[in-house]
Structures are given as structure tokens and as C-alpha cells.
């Protein structure tokens, strides 16, 4: 149960669940205290990051100014150098965002919140490499998604849809009166709320696109020239902008309901309408069931849908129905770990009590297994089905990652000064694995007895079906 709800068992996490009892431990995970403390060395790393010290809007504006300045350099060689420096700085911002996210995955006591943060990042997928999103992706995760990962779906929906990273990714900054771009509207209806085949029409897409006109991103410090009436409706939150001069103020009808509002409130009301639809409740409940138990049984999804609607989309309440279900209990131990879960659980178990200094190898392993953070190019997010991650080629890569995690991994403990302090995990003497040994399959138990060294024992353990499933 602990393995299913967290990013992987550790001795400390299992002890906490046993001490509190399963029911109380799950309740704390569903309603986690804020904030959570991370290891001191990890906290220090996060505090030193640029994305922690500067507001996202300031970073995005500074990077935009840097790019424009580079493009205006007349000398070709100097311009090339300046553009290269811009790309290096943008890559550094993405690396910081990735490292901070993985540090929380590894060390936060609020493990369900971290799993749900990934789930929602995948549901509201944004690829960091597009345009200047690398300057925004850390804020998108840390300030828009994570605080709302177990709250009301309506609040999460608004935070995600109005974030500049999402507006950039789905090109809504190009959606304006007279030049309608349906891209973002279609994904909101199809992927983020109602779901495929839920009954919305092409007319609904067109109407939603009109609602979204004027909502975009402004990374300059200038504000548009507006009339007095437009000025009253103008909204700017950081680099998110609602520009009334670009908005279609005509009447709109979505799902048979007139969408009203004054300026940006029109979009907020439209999202509110979509968040409370039974189709949305069913779509979200089905995805949650698929993510946590590998299946979407109709009876369970119906119970979760009813709870969603009765609690105004309270995500923790919907998950509570899922975790109390017989389907959840029956699924324990039978689900295949996807790349994120496999890699994080292996590092959490192998290096418990020794916080890593460098998240780079961890990100590399996750990317090698095909599920890199912020790397999915299409808005549908990574597949949640086990079958997608169980092919022979995938397993070969998993064994390769197991080999590296099982042995000395100096890269995990490389600090900025270049010091290396590799450490060999001692899984064979782990109290958690020792207590689980009687439950290992006969094949795993036999194989482990054939290990010729501690590192080989580690590798065989991390490659075994008993560890690959949870």
C-alpha cells in the first residue's frame, strides 16, 4: 500500500505507516501539512537556485530582453556567442526546475502530493523546450500545480489554464478577435475536462476559442495602448495578460449554456462550467483509477464520479473512495512501475539516509526510460497504461538503469565543486527488504542467493519482478 501511494517504499515511510496505522497514514497523505521539510543539504540547494530567488515574471522578462539584445548584435560571431549564452541560461533554468521537482519527489514526507503533482503535470502537459517555456516551467509546477494537487479540481483547472507556460505551449497568445485559434480550446475540452467522446461539438470548440481570445503572455515591461473602457478590463498577473483589445465580446454558448462575464471573468466562468460537468468528473475519475490501479472498473469509476460531483471536485475525497475500494486492495503488488516510479523508488530505497547532491543522473535515467520530466511533446501526456512500459526493449533499458543505481554512482554525489563521494548501497542488509524476503517469489529468492557481490545483489534485486511491480 505504501509503495502504491508514494514514489517508493523506504524504511522510514513504512515505519511511519505502521506506527500510525494505514487509515490514519492515508488521511495525512490526503490532507498533508504544509510546508514539508527536506534534508538540510537539499533545502540549501533549492534556496540557491535562481528560480527560488527571483519571481518567474522577472526571469521571463530578463530572458526575453537577453534574446532580443542578442538578435540585434550586428557582428555575426558576437551574435552567435550571445545566442549560445541565452540557450545555456535557459537550459540552466530547466535543470533547476527538474532538480527541484525530483528533490521533492525523493524527500518530501507528503508523498501522495508529489505523486499527484506529477499526475496533474502529465494531465495538463506542457513541453519545456518550446519557445521560452523553460523560463516558466518551474513556476508552473511549484506554484500552479503542487499547492492544488489534492484540492478542488476547479481551482487547479484555472491555475493551470491561465498559467503563461500553458498559454505559450498551446499557442493561445496567438488567439485573438478575427484570428481565432482553436488549438487550446480543443485541448481544454478533449484532454483537460470533458474527455474524448463526451458529447461536445465543433461548435463548442469554436465558442470556447472565442472565450479564450485576448488571453496571452506579455514578457515585455510595456502594456498595450488601450481605451479607457478597455483599460478597466485589462488584467496583468506577472506575464499573463488579458488584453480586451484582442477579445471577442460577442455572445457565446458552450454545452447549451450561455457564457457570461465581464472580461477575463468570462473565461473563469467557462472553466467553472466545464469543471463541474459530470463528463469531467467521469473523465478525471477514470484517469485517476488507471494511474493508481492500472484499470478503470466501471463500478469504481462511477463511485469516484459521484464523490467528485458531491464534493465540488475535491480531489482528496475522490482519491479516498479509490483507496478504500476493494479494487485498489486487489491490485496491490500487480502494477508495473512506469519509468518515473521505477527510478525514484530505486533511488529512494538504495540511497535512503544519504541525500543526493546532483539530480542529473536521475533525470538521465528517467529520460532513457522514455518518460523525461517536461519532455512529452504532445498535449496528451505520457500513457498511463502498464502495457506501454512493458516491452522487451523497455525492460532491457530498465536493467541497464538498475545496474547503474546498484553500483557506485559518483554522479549522484557530485557537487558543484566537482568533489565525488561514491557510495555503494547496502540493500541486502536493508531492514525493509529483510522483512520482505519471505514474500519474494521463489525465482527471486533463488536468484539473489547466486549474487557474487553486494553490487550484484543490488542489481538483481532492482531487476527482479518483485521490485518492478508494486
Automatic annotation (TrEMBL):
Protein's name in the database: DUF1800 domain-containing protein
Source species, domain of life: Bacteria
Record-linked InterPro entries: DUF1800 (IPR014917)
